[in-house]
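Input chain follows. Return structure tokens only.
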Amino acid sequence: MFVYIVKLGDGFIVHDAGETVAVIMAHGQSGDTAKKIIKSECKRYGLSFGKRRISLKIEAIDWLETAIVSVANTCAMSARNALKENSKKTEQALAENLYQLLEPSLPKGAITKGFPYKGASGRRYKFDLAVQSRSGITLIETVTAHAISVNSKYVALADVPHDAQVNKIVAHNNDLSAEDILLLQNVATVAGPDGVHKLLTRNVQ
């Protein structure tokens, strides 16, 4: 994305020419969602949003550098938040698919959605799925092939104490890079949906 500068009298208008909306929509979000995300970021940083453009009007050249940085940062944060929201929707869809796949193969009531768990740091997490049995509990986090998703799930799983009673699984749609898989294997077992099903129907009875 680029930032554009238009001379207006003695001042300037700095804008993104609508490129942030285009980028967000190119990553799978609707136009309405893109506008909602951008409006929120513009409100936070005092910028304007209209005709699909993020913009900032300034009265003198002294403020030009600040305006450029403000518009660029708002564009970047809007795109980042859109990617984060898109990743979350993909994670939720995978978690639901896993639930539907696993639930018939497990004892009644063994699997739970949105399972709360307190990490070693004292921070409370909500894991996508949890499967409980007589031998312990398995915490499952779903992840997408985006750095935001990989990093956040790594942090959550790394904060769970190593315990013989707690197993940890990262579930993905078979789209992670080899580097991401190696990273996540430091804190959990990494598997696609079929692999998760085999692990749990074999070990949880």
